[in-house]
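Repro case for the chain-ordering regression, as requested:
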Amino acid sequence: MEDNIKRSIILDHYQAPRNRGLIEDDSYIKVDTNNESCIDEIYLMVKIEDGIIKDARFDGEACAICTSSTSIMVDTIMGKTIEEAKEILTNFSNMIDEKKYDKEILEEAIVYDDIYKQPSRKKCALLPWWGLEKAIKINEEKNNENH
Ligand code: ZN
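-- result from build under test --
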């Protein structure tokens, strides 16, 4: 992907984040994540039903990289199964850590493929995905309790 296209996708998600704003609904799993090396503080809420991510929303105070990364993540994971979301998460982390990853499944999240050049910003891009990881874990624990 060309740099100017990447930049315009990031800018678009920063200026008009998808699903920003939390709602009162106990059927969502809520997690907070923050990045001490930046201003980033993200509140994420995810609705998982029958192993599928039905909805994801967020709010908080964050830099352009973190806000856009959260918006892109929300857009990417909605409608996916937990297994699919986990696979995207693994590949996204691998990309940030300069390990082997599958470009095809990352969708728009691929725009951060050269963020490793700015080590201080890696956490900004990863933060929402760590939040998702937490939410998936909470969901698994909840399911185990019910069995
Ligand atoms: Zn940041």
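Ordering looks correct now. The chain has a mean pLDDT of 96.
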